[in-house]
């Protein structure tokens, strides 16, 4: 990717970030989340696991890049995901990660992790809204697939 392209992406992220953090702005559609995540994670060369922490109205409290991995995996610690959610007083969360290979098809490990995180977050009353896997030009939503 050329520097000009990186600059354009950075400007788009800046605009999108300011809109998402505007008081009253909520993540009302999966498309809004997709656009945000595509800009954040699609070009990463290694796997990145992140969480969008939301308030009770699904307004963005924070986007946190929690764990960085290798080209095909990232170690994720549910304790840290829960701890960050509690610190932000979050009511809901959307977990996400990229597949640097470009194929957004979730693995069995992705599905197992989703169950573990959903259960861990539920213990502290944080609802897992979705798990999105970002590939090149595509994003798979666990919620849309009926897996959450």
From TrEMBL:
GO terms for biological process: proteolysis. InterPro entries: MPN, RadC_JAB, UPF0758, UPF0758_CS. GO terms for molecular function: metal ion binding; metallopeptidase activity. Keywords: Hydrolase, Metal-binding, Metalloprotease, Protease, Zinc. CDD domains: MPN_DUF2466 (cd08071). Gene3D superfamilies: Cytidine Deaminase, domain 2 (3.40.140.10). Residues 26-148 form the MPN domain. The keyword Protease applies. It comes from the Bacteria. This is DNA repair protein RadC. It comes from Pseudomonas mosselii.
